[in-house]
Specification:
This protein is α+β, with helices and mostly antiparallel strands and about 425 residues long. The protein has ten helices and 17 strands. It has helices at about 35-50, 170-180, 220-235, 265-280, 285-290, 330-345, 350-370, 385, 395-410, 415-430; strands spanning about 10-15, 20, 55-60, 70-75, 80-85, 95-100, 110-130, 130-140, 145-150, 150-155, 165-170, 200-210, 215-220, 250, 255, 305-310, 315. Strands 3, 4, 5, 6, 7, 8, 9, 10, 11, 12 and 13 form an eleven-stranded mixed β-sheet that branches. Strands 1-2 form a two-stranded antiparallel sheet. A two-stranded antiparallel sheet has the order 14-15.
């Protein structure tokens, strides 16, 4: 099943935001790519359904006052008792330690912390990688996303640490992302990776002055990470447009999109994430954000929106709103799936608007789908039509995505055309070709 966080194009899981920080299309410090964020949420949503409930181990519960060397204090913000600690900020100075971690090696840890000024939380790890090595993951008050110093890997949790920060961390991912910093690709496909066979937390070390809330380790944290992604989408939606702007340039063919562009695929996958969060939690904020996301579907790419029209007749929701239009197939279908999710979840005029946008898109898909068929595979887009260039043949992972998407479309908007194209394109993958004259 898809694991977004292990992709090479994900620099790390931000400790400040809790979602993937993308290195795609940039060589700088990374950016938050709404498509990756939504896919991160959807992958954990699916795993939460398909996998067993997590085993949870409470490492420290500060409701039991007096059982710790440093006293717990009552917190109105957390509505619980929390641990009050006062120590030097330097990681080389005196510290206080929690060391009652299980030997089972649960890879997820969840805790909340806030500091009076600055400080850090260090997880000391015992790692088996050919030989046993000790590493440290240090979550510290900084705006820098990730950096490494020898066996220490640092994650910034924000320069201002005076408010409560809730962390849900996969220690394996955090370690691997730190270890692969600066490692260059040895060829286009392969990348040097550590060969970790076992990892476990042996202790948590605190520095600075602040408060620590309940500490728990888990075998998985799919539900928690799903909501982290959904909450990010609510916080970062531009309310005036209903969109999630993409903050880096993107060159596609002869066109170059400038920072701040919107994507129909991002809108669709965000809507799919948000409607699931609403149905699971009942929180209206998620549905309200999903409905706002419909607004960009009413604006053309030339107006800063995401809609193009093929031959002045068929509406198309653009993954990349280029000029001339690119008509990317997989991004368009992801947009349709998001519209379908809103049409099932919203009510009244909002439901009607989502349904009409979906129906218009389905009609366009039926009309244009034959243009993507090469007789031996499928094309990624229609630039061979709009730019009169060579066809942009979909590589096999995209072609397989096209097949899966058509099968999904046939399940929600049944049509023999979707079924027959999915079958034909699937057969292309085993060597079948269209007949010649």
């Amino acid at each position: 099943m898809l694991s977004v966080e292990v992709r090479d194009r994900v620099k790390c899981i931000s400790a400040m935001e809790g979602v993937p920080l993308s290195s795609q299309w940039t060589t700088g410090g990374g950016h938050f790519y709404p498509i990756q964020v939504a896919q991160f949420g959807l992958s954990h949503y699916s795993k939460n359904i398909s996998e067993e409930a997590p085993r949870k181990t409470v490492i420290a519960n500060f409701q039991q006052r007096g059982s710790w060397a440093v006293p717990a204090v009552e917190s109105d913000e957390q509505r619980s008792f929390v641990w009050n600690f006062t120590l030097p900020e330097s990681v080389s100075g005196p510290d206080v330690v929690l060391d009652e971690f299980p030997d089972s090696g649960d890879p997820y840890i969840i805790f909340s912390v806030k500091f009076r000024t600055h400080g850090s939380v260090t997880l000391q790890l015992e790692v088996q990688d050919k030989k046993q090595i000790t590493y440290e993951l240090i979550y510290t008050c900084s705006n820098e996303s990730i950096w490494a110093e020898g066996n220490r890997i640092f994650y910034g949790i924000g320069a201002d640490c005076t408010n409560w920060i809730s962390l849900v961390r996969d220690i394996y991912v955090d370690l691997v992302k730190g270890l692969t910093l600066g490692i260059k690709k040895i060829n286009k496909k392969d990348k040097v990776r550590p060969n970790i066979t076992r990892i476990r937390i042996i202790r948590m070390v605190l520095h600075g002055q602040g408060h620590l809330d309940k500490v728990v380790t888990q075998t998985t944290a799919h539900s928690e990470l799903f909501y982290v992604a959904a909450d990010w989408l609510v916080r970062h939606q531009v309310r005036q447009t209903g969109g999630w702007p993409i903050s880096v340039k993107r060159k596609l063919g002869a066109s170059e999109l400038q920072p701040g562009w919107f994507s129909a695929m991002a809108q669709g996958q965000a809507m799919s994430t948000l409607t699931r969060a609403y149905r699971k939690s009942g929180s209206a904020a998620y549905l309200e954000a999903a409905v706002r996301a419909l607004d960009l579907f009413g604006k053309s790419a030339a107006e800063g929106g995401i809609t193009a029209v093929f031959l002045d007749k068929y509406v198309w929701y653009e993954e990349y709103p280029t000029k001339p239009p690119s008509f990317v197939l997989n991004g368009f279908i992801y947009a349709l799936l998001g519209l379908y999710d809103v049409s099932l979840t919203a009510t009244g005029e909002d439901q009607k608007r989502a349904h009409n946008l979906f129906a218009d898109g389905v009609a366009s898909l039926k009309a244009l789908l034959p243009l993507f068929d090469t007789g031996s595979g499928s094309t990624y887009d229609l630039r061979h039509f709009t730019l009169k260039s060579l066809p942009n043949i979909a590589r096999w992972d995209y072609h397989a995505t096209h097949v899966t998407q058509l099968l999904v479309m046939n399940s929600i908007a049944p049509d023999e055309m979707f079924q027959s194209f999915a079958q034909r394109w699937s057969e292309y993958m085993s060597g079948k070709r269209a007949p010649h004259n």
